[in-house]
Amino acid sequence: MPDDSLAAIVNDAPMTAAQAVALKQLATDAFELEAFDPNLTQAEAQRRIATLAGKLALLDEPPHTL
In the prediction, which pLDDT does 1 show? Predict the structure, then answer.
């Protein structure tokens, strides 16, 4: 099943200003500054935002112990 958040995104359109702000902040928070590229499409920006948000969510969880 396709991701609904990508359904309204035009693949070739440049990322929106809101996506740029979110991606830049997430890239900074995740110490992955190379994830931000001002020339991304909306679809690629959304994928990177989701990936970085997921990574940060995992880092916020307590470490797993045996």
Answer: 44
What are the tens digits of pLDDT across the range 8-56? 556 689 999 999 999 999 999 999 999 999 999 999 999 999 999 999 9
Residue 66 lies in a domain: no
50 assigned to some structural domain? yes
H or E element in which residue 20 lies: helix 17-29
Token pair of 22, please? 């979110």
Tokens of 66: 């045996």
Residue 38 within a domain: yes
Residues 6+ apart with CB under 8 A from 40: 14, 15, 19, 23, 48
Question: Three-class SS of residue 40?
Answer: coil
